[in-house]
Amino acid sequence: MIRVVLPPHLRQLANVDRVVEIQVKEPLTLRTVLDALEARYPVLRGTIRDYTTQERRAFIRFFACGQDLSHEPLDAPLPETVASGAEYLMVVGAMAGG
Amino acid sequence: MSEVRVLVGTHKGAFMLNSDGKRKRWDVSGPFFAGWEIYHFNGSPADPDRLYASQSNGWFGQVIQRSNDGGKTWEAAGNKFTYDGVPGTHQWYDGTPHPWEFKRVWNLVPSFTDPDTVYAGVEDAALFRSKDGGQTWEEFPGLRKAKGNLWQPGAGGMCLHTILIDPSNSKRIFVAISAAGAFRTDDDGQNWRPINRGLISPNELPDTTAEVGHCVHNISMHPSRPGVLFMQKHWDVMRSDDAGEMWHEISGNLPSDFGFPIAVHAHEPETIYVVPIKSDSEHYPPEGKLRVYRSRKGGNEWEALTNGLPQGNCYVNILRSAMAVDSLDSCGIYFGTTGGQVYGSADSGDTWTPIVRDLPAVLSVEVQTLR
Fold first, then answer.
1. Which domain holds residue A82?
2. What are the structural domains of chain B?
3. A98 lies in a domain?
4. How large is the ipTM?
5. B235 in A contact zone (CB under 8 Å)
6. What are phi and psi of A82, to 5 degrees?
7. Which residue of B60, B65, B124 is the best one to mutate when testing the A interface, meaning the one whose CB has the most A CBs within 10 A?
8. Could you list the mean pLDDT of each consecutive 10-residue stretch along chain A, which spans 98 residues?
9. Looking at residue A52, what is its pLDDT?
10. In contact, B144 and B124? CB cutoff 8 Å
11. pTM of the complete model
12. CB-CB: which of B35, B36, B79 is closest to A46?
Protein backbone atom coordinates (compact mmCIF):
# COMPACT_ATOMS: atom_id res chain seq x y z
CA MET A 1 0.00 0.00 0.00
CA ILE A 2 1.43 3.36 -1.04
CA ARG A 3 0.73 6.40 1.11
CA VAL A 4 0.37 9.65 -0.79
CA VAL A 5 0.11 13.07 0.84
CA LEU A 6 -2.02 15.53 -1.14
CA PRO A 7 -1.94 19.33 -0.90
CA PRO A 8 -4.99 21.06 0.64
CA HIS A 9 -6.61 22.11 -2.66
CA LEU A 10 -6.54 18.57 -3.98
CA ARG A 11 -7.80 17.10 -0.69
CA GLN A 12 -10.75 19.45 -0.97
CA LEU A 13 -11.34 18.48 -4.57
CA ALA A 14 -11.15 14.73 -3.96
CA ASN A 15 -12.88 14.99 -0.58
CA VAL A 16 -10.13 13.06 1.21
CA ASP A 17 -7.88 13.48 4.21
CA ARG A 18 -4.24 14.52 4.05
CA VAL A 19 -3.00 11.00 3.35
CA VAL A 20 -4.57 8.59 0.88
CA GLU A 21 -3.57 4.94 0.65
CA ILE A 22 -3.63 3.32 -2.75
CA GLN A 23 -2.75 -0.04 -4.23
CA VAL A 24 -0.26 0.19 -7.06
CA LYS A 25 0.78 -2.64 -9.34
CA GLU A 26 4.50 -3.11 -10.01
CA PRO A 27 6.65 -1.51 -11.21
CA LEU A 28 6.37 1.21 -8.60
CA THR A 29 7.13 4.53 -10.30
CA LEU A 30 5.76 8.07 -10.25
CA ARG A 31 3.78 7.23 -13.37
CA THR A 32 2.16 4.10 -11.95
CA VAL A 33 1.37 5.84 -8.66
CA LEU A 34 -0.24 8.78 -10.46
CA ASP A 35 -2.14 6.42 -12.75
CA ALA A 36 -3.53 4.58 -9.72
CA LEU A 37 -4.29 7.81 -7.89
CA GLU A 38 -6.24 9.22 -10.85
CA ALA A 39 -8.05 5.93 -11.38
CA ARG A 40 -9.28 5.99 -7.80
CA TYR A 41 -10.00 9.74 -7.76
CA PRO A 42 -10.88 10.73 -11.34
CA VAL A 43 -11.44 14.32 -10.27
CA LEU A 44 -7.66 14.62 -9.90
CA ARG A 45 -7.09 14.01 -13.63
CA GLY A 46 -5.52 17.08 -15.13
CA THR A 47 -4.66 18.64 -11.77
CA ILE A 48 -1.24 17.02 -11.23
CA ARG A 49 -0.31 16.15 -14.80
CA ASP A 50 -1.24 18.05 -17.93
CA TYR A 51 -4.10 16.29 -19.70
CA THR A 52 -2.54 16.43 -23.11
CA THR A 53 1.18 15.98 -22.49
CA GLN A 54 0.91 13.92 -19.28
CA GLU A 55 3.82 15.99 -18.00
CA ARG A 56 3.97 17.22 -14.41
CA ARG A 57 2.23 20.57 -14.11
CA ALA A 58 4.73 23.39 -13.72
CA PHE A 59 3.89 24.27 -10.10
CA ILE A 60 3.69 20.69 -8.82
CA ARG A 61 6.56 18.97 -7.04
CA PHE A 62 7.07 15.44 -5.72
CA PHE A 63 8.97 14.85 -2.47
CA ALA A 64 9.84 11.59 -0.70
CA CYS A 65 12.44 10.50 1.83
CA GLY A 66 13.75 14.05 2.14
CA GLN A 67 14.46 14.21 -1.58
CA ASP A 68 12.98 16.18 -4.46
CA LEU A 69 11.80 13.68 -7.07
CA SER A 70 10.14 16.31 -9.26
CA HIS A 71 12.72 16.04 -12.00
CA GLU A 72 13.23 12.27 -11.88
CA PRO A 73 11.99 10.35 -14.93
CA LEU A 74 8.36 9.35 -14.48
CA ASP A 75 9.34 5.71 -15.03
CA ALA A 76 12.21 5.65 -12.52
CA PRO A 77 11.68 3.29 -9.55
CA LEU A 78 10.50 4.98 -6.36
CA PRO A 79 12.52 4.51 -3.15
CA GLU A 80 12.00 1.18 -1.39
CA THR A 81 10.70 2.91 1.74
CA VAL A 82 7.90 4.50 -0.34
CA ALA A 83 7.16 1.12 -1.89
CA SER A 84 6.88 -0.45 1.56
CA GLY A 85 4.62 2.31 2.84
CA ALA A 86 7.13 3.38 5.48
CA GLU A 87 7.52 6.80 3.83
CA TYR A 88 5.01 9.06 2.17
CA LEU A 89 5.09 10.24 -1.42
CA MET A 90 4.21 13.90 -1.15
CA VAL A 91 2.45 15.81 -3.94
CA VAL A 92 3.26 19.44 -3.22
CA GLY A 93 2.04 22.73 -4.63
CA ALA A 94 5.21 24.73 -5.23
CA MET A 95 5.85 27.75 -3.07
CA ALA A 96 4.85 30.85 -5.00
CA GLY A 97 4.17 34.21 -3.49
CA GLY A 98 4.32 35.43 0.12
CA MET B 1 -42.96 35.75 -4.99
CA SER B 2 -39.98 36.46 -7.19
CA GLU B 3 -36.46 35.78 -6.02
CA VAL B 4 -33.08 36.89 -7.24
CA ARG B 5 -29.91 34.85 -7.03
CA VAL B 6 -26.64 36.64 -7.75
CA LEU B 7 -23.79 34.28 -8.66
CA VAL B 8 -20.40 35.73 -7.80
CA GLY B 9 -17.06 34.31 -8.88
CA THR B 10 -14.05 35.60 -6.98
CA HIS B 11 -10.31 35.19 -6.74
CA LYS B 12 -10.77 32.79 -3.80
CA GLY B 13 -14.08 31.00 -4.27
CA ALA B 14 -17.71 31.40 -5.33
CA PHE B 15 -20.56 33.04 -3.45
CA MET B 16 -24.32 33.19 -3.85
CA LEU B 17 -26.35 36.24 -2.83
CA ASN B 18 -30.07 35.57 -2.47
CA SER B 19 -32.95 37.96 -1.99
CA ASP B 20 -36.66 38.23 -2.59
CA GLY B 21 -38.00 40.52 -5.27
CA LYS B 22 -37.70 43.58 -3.05
CA ARG B 23 -33.91 43.16 -3.04
CA LYS B 24 -33.57 44.86 0.33
CA ARG B 25 -32.23 42.00 2.44
CA TRP B 26 -29.67 39.55 1.20
CA ASP B 27 -28.55 36.13 2.33
CA VAL B 28 -24.91 35.43 1.48
CA SER B 29 -23.67 31.85 1.15
CA GLY B 30 -20.19 30.58 0.37
CA PRO B 31 -17.38 30.40 -0.21
CA PHE B 32 -17.83 27.43 -2.50
CA PHE B 33 -14.55 25.93 -3.79
CA ALA B 34 -12.68 28.02 -1.23
CA GLY B 35 -9.24 29.13 -2.25
CA TRP B 36 -9.76 28.53 -5.98
CA GLU B 37 -10.24 31.17 -8.66
CA ILE B 38 -13.77 31.14 -10.01
CA TYR B 39 -13.51 32.92 -13.32
CA HIS B 40 -17.19 32.37 -14.10
CA PHE B 41 -20.26 31.09 -12.27
CA ASN B 42 -23.44 30.85 -14.29
CA GLY B 43 -26.88 29.26 -14.36
CA SER B 44 -28.95 27.59 -17.06
CA PRO B 45 -31.86 29.64 -18.43
CA ALA B 46 -33.65 26.35 -19.14
CA ASP B 47 -33.24 24.99 -15.60
CA PRO B 48 -32.25 27.55 -12.95
CA ASP B 49 -31.14 24.80 -10.59
CA ARG B 50 -28.42 23.76 -13.04
CA LEU B 51 -25.34 25.80 -12.25
CA TYR B 52 -21.87 25.69 -13.72
CA ALA B 53 -18.66 27.07 -12.24
CA SER B 54 -15.20 27.39 -13.74
CA GLN B 55 -12.77 26.53 -10.95
CA SER B 56 -9.04 26.91 -11.53
CA ASN B 57 -5.72 27.98 -10.16
CA GLY B 58 -2.16 28.22 -11.35
CA TRP B 59 -1.02 25.12 -9.46
CA PHE B 60 -3.68 22.56 -10.22
CA GLY B 61 -5.26 23.73 -13.46
CA GLN B 62 -8.89 23.65 -14.52
CA VAL B 63 -11.91 21.98 -12.93
CA ILE B 64 -15.53 22.38 -14.02
CA GLN B 65 -18.14 22.12 -11.27
CA ARG B 66 -21.83 21.43 -11.82
CA SER B 67 -24.82 21.60 -9.50
CA ASN B 68 -28.25 20.13 -10.21
CA ASP B 69 -29.95 21.60 -7.14
CA GLY B 70 -29.26 25.31 -7.20
CA GLY B 71 -25.90 25.06 -5.49
CA LYS B 72 -26.78 22.84 -2.53
CA THR B 73 -24.52 20.08 -3.82
CA TRP B 74 -21.80 20.01 -6.46
CA GLU B 75 -19.99 17.47 -8.58
CA ALA B 76 -16.90 17.83 -10.71
CA ALA B 77 -17.65 17.53 -14.42
CA GLY B 78 -15.15 16.98 -17.22
CA ASN B 79 -12.03 19.11 -17.43
CA LYS B 80 -10.42 17.73 -20.58
CA PHE B 81 -10.15 20.65 -23.02
CA THR B 82 -8.13 19.43 -25.98
CA TYR B 83 -7.71 21.58 -29.06
CA ASP B 84 -8.79 19.96 -32.30
CA GLY B 85 -5.79 18.84 -34.35
CA VAL B 86 -2.48 20.69 -34.14
CA PRO B 87 -3.39 24.21 -33.05
CA GLY B 88 -0.19 25.82 -34.29
CA THR B 89 0.80 29.27 -33.10
CA HIS B 90 -0.67 32.66 -32.32
CA GLN B 91 1.27 35.87 -31.77
CA TRP B 92 3.04 36.51 -28.49
CA TYR B 93 3.12 39.99 -26.92
CA ASP B 94 6.12 40.95 -29.02
CA GLY B 95 4.60 39.64 -32.25
CA THR B 96 6.62 36.41 -32.37
CA PRO B 97 4.86 33.06 -32.90
CA HIS B 98 3.81 31.29 -29.70
CA PRO B 99 2.27 27.83 -29.37
CA TRP B 100 -1.36 27.48 -28.36
CA GLU B 101 -1.64 26.22 -24.76
CA PHE B 102 -4.80 25.64 -22.74
CA LYS B 103 -4.78 27.58 -19.46
CA ARG B 104 -8.30 28.06 -18.09
CA VAL B 105 -11.98 28.57 -18.80
CA TRP B 106 -13.06 32.21 -18.67
CA ASN B 107 -16.70 31.97 -19.63
CA LEU B 108 -19.43 29.35 -19.27
CA VAL B 109 -22.69 30.01 -21.10
CA PRO B 110 -25.48 27.43 -20.95
CA SER B 111 -27.90 27.05 -23.84
CA PHE B 112 -31.26 28.81 -23.64
CA THR B 113 -33.13 25.54 -24.16
CA ASP B 114 -31.04 22.62 -22.88
CA PRO B 115 -29.39 22.61 -19.44
CA ASP B 116 -26.92 19.94 -20.57
CA THR B 117 -25.61 22.07 -23.42
CA VAL B 118 -23.04 24.61 -22.31
CA TYR B 119 -20.40 26.66 -24.11
CA ALA B 120 -16.94 27.37 -22.69
CA GLY B 121 -14.66 30.20 -23.76
CA VAL B 122 -11.07 29.39 -22.89
CA GLU B 123 -7.52 30.75 -22.76
CA ASP B 124 -5.63 30.34 -25.09
CA ALA B 125 -8.61 31.49 -27.06
CA ALA B 126 -11.00 28.85 -28.34
CA LEU B 127 -14.65 27.91 -27.98
CA PHE B 128 -15.75 24.52 -26.70
CA ARG B 129 -19.21 23.00 -26.28
CA SER B 130 -20.50 20.20 -24.11
CA LYS B 131 -23.81 18.49 -24.79
CA ASP B 132 -23.67 16.20 -21.76
CA GLY B 133 -23.69 18.58 -18.85
CA GLY B 134 -19.99 19.36 -18.97
CA GLN B 135 -18.71 15.78 -18.94
CA THR B 136 -17.05 16.00 -22.35
CA TRP B 137 -16.00 19.01 -24.42
CA GLU B 138 -15.53 19.51 -28.13
CA GLU B 139 -13.81 22.47 -29.73
CA PHE B 140 -15.09 24.56 -32.66
CA PRO B 141 -11.81 24.64 -34.60
CA GLY B 142 -13.31 26.85 -37.30
CA LEU B 143 -12.98 29.80 -34.96
CA ARG B 144 -9.20 29.57 -34.83
CA LYS B 145 -9.17 29.52 -38.63
CA ALA B 146 -10.38 33.12 -38.56
CA LYS B 147 -6.78 34.35 -38.65
CA GLY B 148 -5.91 32.80 -35.30
CA ASN B 149 -2.23 32.99 -36.19
CA LEU B 150 -2.53 36.79 -35.85
CA TRP B 151 -4.33 36.86 -32.51
CA GLN B 152 -2.31 38.02 -29.51
CA PRO B 153 -2.83 38.07 -25.74
CA GLY B 154 -4.13 41.08 -23.87
CA ALA B 155 -2.85 41.89 -20.40
CA GLY B 156 -5.11 39.20 -18.94
CA GLY B 157 -4.04 36.56 -21.43
CA MET B 158 -5.40 35.47 -24.79
CA CYS B 159 -8.85 34.68 -23.53
CA LEU B 160 -12.22 34.06 -25.12
CA HIS B 161 -14.19 35.92 -22.50
CA THR B 162 -17.58 36.68 -24.03
CA ILE B 163 -20.11 34.31 -25.61
CA LEU B 164 -23.48 35.62 -26.85
CA ILE B 165 -25.99 33.22 -28.34
CA ASP B 166 -28.69 34.78 -30.50
CA PRO B 167 -31.93 33.97 -28.61
CA SER B 168 -33.88 33.89 -31.87
CA ASN B 169 -31.40 31.74 -33.78
CA SER B 170 -29.13 29.43 -31.80
CA LYS B 171 -26.96 28.83 -34.88
CA ARG B 172 -25.75 32.42 -34.63
CA ILE B 173 -23.14 32.95 -31.91
CA PHE B 174 -20.96 35.95 -31.19
CA VAL B 175 -17.68 35.70 -29.26
CA ALA B 176 -15.06 38.20 -28.19
CA ILE B 177 -11.37 37.57 -27.62
CA SER B 178 -8.59 39.68 -26.13
CA ALA B 179 -6.70 40.69 -28.18
CA ALA B 180 -8.19 39.38 -31.36
CA GLY B 181 -11.59 41.03 -31.63
CA ALA B 182 -15.17 39.93 -32.18
CA PHE B 183 -16.23 36.97 -34.29
CA ARG B 184 -19.53 35.53 -35.50
CA THR B 185 -20.82 32.20 -36.73
CA ASP B 186 -24.13 31.78 -38.54
CA ASP B 187 -23.96 27.99 -38.88
CA ASP B 188 -23.71 26.69 -35.33
CA GLY B 189 -20.00 27.15 -35.03
CA GLN B 190 -18.71 25.50 -38.18
CA ASN B 191 -17.51 28.68 -39.87
CA TRP B 192 -16.51 31.96 -38.26
CA ARG B 193 -15.46 35.36 -39.47
CA PRO B 194 -14.10 38.49 -37.82
CA ILE B 195 -16.66 41.27 -37.28
CA ASN B 196 -14.36 44.17 -36.47
CA ARG B 197 -15.04 46.77 -39.19
CA GLY B 198 -15.21 50.20 -37.61
CA LEU B 199 -12.91 49.38 -34.70
CA ILE B 200 -9.83 51.58 -34.53
CA SER B 201 -6.84 50.80 -32.27
CA PRO B 202 -4.21 53.50 -32.88
CA ASN B 203 -2.21 52.78 -29.73
CA GLU B 204 -2.26 49.00 -29.94
CA LEU B 205 -1.95 47.96 -33.60
CA PRO B 206 0.40 49.00 -36.42
CA ASP B 207 -2.54 48.72 -38.82
CA THR B 208 -5.10 50.64 -36.78
CA THR B 209 -8.10 49.16 -38.61
CA ALA B 210 -6.79 45.61 -38.94
CA GLU B 211 -9.30 42.82 -39.49
CA VAL B 212 -8.17 41.11 -36.24
CA GLY B 213 -6.08 42.08 -33.22
CA HIS B 214 -8.39 44.58 -31.50
CA CYS B 215 -8.67 44.29 -27.74
CA VAL B 216 -12.40 43.86 -27.20
CA HIS B 217 -13.25 43.81 -23.50
CA ASN B 218 -16.93 42.89 -23.48
CA ILE B 219 -20.04 42.74 -25.69
CA SER B 220 -23.72 42.80 -24.69
CA MET B 221 -27.06 42.56 -26.43
CA HIS B 222 -30.70 42.85 -25.51
CA PRO B 223 -32.49 39.55 -26.17
CA SER B 224 -35.28 41.28 -28.10
CA ARG B 225 -32.79 42.81 -30.57
CA PRO B 226 -29.98 40.33 -31.13
CA GLY B 227 -28.65 42.28 -34.11
CA VAL B 228 -27.84 45.30 -31.97
CA LEU B 229 -24.56 44.85 -30.13
CA PHE B 230 -22.84 47.10 -27.62
CA MET B 231 -19.09 46.82 -27.05
CA GLN B 232 -16.65 48.07 -24.46
CA LYS B 233 -13.31 48.05 -26.24
CA HIS B 234 -9.90 48.60 -24.64
CA TRP B 235 -10.54 52.24 -25.50
CA ASP B 236 -13.88 53.29 -27.05
CA VAL B 237 -17.47 52.25 -26.41
CA MET B 238 -18.95 50.99 -29.65
CA ARG B 239 -22.28 49.96 -31.16
CA SER B 240 -23.33 47.85 -34.12
CA ASP B 241 -26.84 47.79 -35.56
CA ASP B 242 -26.18 45.02 -38.05
CA ALA B 243 -24.88 42.07 -36.02
CA GLY B 244 -21.32 43.30 -36.08
CA GLU B 245 -20.96 44.09 -39.80
CA MET B 246 -20.01 47.66 -38.88
CA TRP B 247 -19.30 49.37 -35.56
CA HIS B 248 -19.47 53.05 -34.67
CA GLU B 249 -18.34 54.85 -31.58
CA ILE B 250 -20.84 55.93 -28.90
CA SER B 251 -18.43 57.09 -26.19
CA GLY B 252 -19.91 60.61 -26.29
CA ASN B 253 -19.49 62.50 -23.00
CA LEU B 254 -18.00 59.68 -20.92
CA PRO B 255 -15.15 60.86 -18.65
CA SER B 256 -13.08 57.95 -19.99
CA ASP B 257 -14.00 55.47 -22.69
CA PHE B 258 -11.70 52.81 -21.24
CA GLY B 259 -13.41 50.14 -19.17
CA PHE B 260 -14.34 46.50 -19.03
CA PRO B 261 -18.03 45.49 -18.68
CA ILE B 262 -21.03 46.75 -20.62
CA ALA B 263 -24.63 45.79 -19.85
CA VAL B 264 -28.10 46.36 -21.29
CA HIS B 265 -31.24 47.10 -19.25
CA ALA B 266 -33.61 44.12 -19.08
CA HIS B 267 -36.63 45.98 -20.48
CA GLU B 268 -35.20 49.00 -22.31
CA PRO B 269 -33.02 47.92 -25.24
CA GLU B 270 -31.58 51.41 -25.65
CA THR B 271 -30.54 51.75 -22.01
CA ILE B 272 -26.96 50.66 -21.49
CA TYR B 273 -24.41 50.80 -18.69
CA VAL B 274 -20.62 51.09 -18.49
CA VAL B 275 -18.16 51.76 -15.67
CA PRO B 276 -15.42 54.10 -16.93
CA ILE B 277 -11.87 53.35 -15.79
CA LYS B 278 -9.14 55.97 -16.00
CA SER B 279 -6.80 54.23 -18.44
CA ASP B 280 -5.10 51.01 -19.43
CA SER B 281 -2.24 51.81 -17.06
CA GLU B 282 -4.42 53.10 -14.19
CA HIS B 283 -7.14 50.53 -13.65
CA TYR B 284 -9.38 52.54 -11.32
CA PRO B 285 -12.22 55.04 -11.67
CA PRO B 286 -11.36 58.58 -12.80
CA GLU B 287 -10.84 60.93 -9.85
CA GLY B 288 -11.29 58.02 -7.44
CA LYS B 289 -15.07 58.30 -7.90
CA LEU B 290 -16.93 55.08 -8.58
CA ARG B 291 -19.53 56.01 -11.20
CA VAL B 292 -21.70 53.82 -13.35
CA TYR B 293 -22.67 55.64 -16.52
CA ARG B 294 -26.07 55.07 -18.11
CA SER B 295 -27.24 56.05 -21.54
CA ARG B 296 -30.96 55.87 -22.25
CA LYS B 297 -30.37 56.65 -25.92
CA GLY B 298 -28.18 53.74 -26.91
CA GLY B 299 -24.99 55.70 -26.35
CA ASN B 300 -23.35 59.10 -26.90
CA GLU B 301 -25.37 60.82 -24.15
CA TRP B 302 -24.39 59.47 -20.74
CA GLU B 303 -25.38 60.31 -17.16
CA ALA B 304 -23.34 59.48 -14.07
CA LEU B 305 -25.04 57.24 -11.49
CA THR B 306 -23.48 57.93 -8.12
CA ASN B 307 -26.16 57.62 -5.45
CA GLY B 308 -24.80 55.10 -2.94
CA LEU B 309 -21.42 54.63 -4.62
CA PRO B 310 -18.17 55.94 -3.09
CA GLN B 311 -17.31 59.36 -4.52
CA GLY B 312 -13.80 59.65 -3.19
CA ASN B 313 -10.68 57.56 -2.61
CA CYS B 314 -12.05 54.63 -4.58
CA TYR B 315 -9.40 52.79 -6.58
CA VAL B 316 -11.00 49.47 -7.44
CA ASN B 317 -11.51 47.96 -10.87
CA ILE B 318 -14.63 46.32 -12.29
CA LEU B 319 -13.69 43.37 -14.47
CA ARG B 320 -15.30 42.49 -17.77
CA SER B 321 -17.64 39.74 -16.54
CA ALA B 322 -18.55 41.45 -13.29
CA MET B 323 -21.77 43.29 -14.21
CA ALA B 324 -25.23 41.83 -14.85
CA VAL B 325 -28.94 42.67 -14.71
CA ASP B 326 -31.99 40.89 -13.36
CA SER B 327 -35.30 40.83 -15.22
CA LEU B 328 -37.72 41.94 -12.52
CA ASP B 329 -40.19 44.69 -13.47
CA SER B 330 -37.96 47.29 -11.85
CA CYS B 331 -34.70 46.18 -13.43
CA GLY B 332 -31.92 45.36 -11.00
CA ILE B 333 -28.30 45.85 -11.90
CA TYR B 334 -25.28 44.47 -10.05
CA PHE B 335 -21.54 44.72 -10.29
CA GLY B 336 -18.54 43.45 -8.34
CA THR B 337 -15.19 45.10 -7.76
CA THR B 338 -11.61 43.99 -7.32
CA GLY B 339 -11.96 45.33 -3.78
CA GLY B 340 -14.51 42.64 -2.98
CA GLN B 341 -17.66 44.74 -2.97
CA VAL B 342 -20.81 43.72 -4.80
CA TYR B 343 -23.11 46.68 -5.37
CA GLY B 344 -26.75 46.32 -6.34
CA SER B 345 -29.43 48.65 -7.59
CA ALA B 346 -33.11 47.68 -7.67
CA ASP B 347 -34.13 50.78 -9.65
CA SER B 348 -32.17 50.62 -12.90
CA GLY B 349 -29.13 52.28 -11.36
CA ASP B 350 -30.71 55.34 -9.75
CA THR B 351 -29.61 54.24 -6.27
CA TRP B 352 -27.03 51.69 -5.15
CA THR B 353 -26.27 49.75 -2.00
CA PRO B 354 -23.40 47.42 -1.20
CA ILE B 355 -24.75 43.87 -0.83
CA VAL B 356 -21.39 42.66 0.49
CA ARG B 357 -18.23 44.67 1.10
CA ASP B 358 -15.38 42.31 1.84
CA LEU B 359 -15.31 39.38 -0.54
CA PRO B 360 -12.12 38.42 -2.37
CA ALA B 361 -11.59 40.28 -5.64
CA VAL B 362 -14.67 39.75 -7.79
CA LEU B 363 -14.06 38.14 -11.19
CA SER B 364 -17.63 37.62 -12.37
CA VAL B 365 -21.24 38.44 -11.54
CA GLU B 366 -24.30 36.76 -13.04
CA VAL B 367 -27.94 37.05 -12.00
CA GLN B 368 -30.77 34.56 -12.02
CA THR B 369 -34.32 35.88 -11.71
CA LEU B 370 -36.33 33.08 -10.10
CA ARG B 371 -40.08 33.43 -10.34
1. 2-93
2. 47-317 (2.130.10.10)
3. no
4. 0.89
5. no
6. -75, -40
7. B60
8. 95 96 94 97 96 90 95 94 95 80
9. 81
10. no
11. 0.96
12. B79
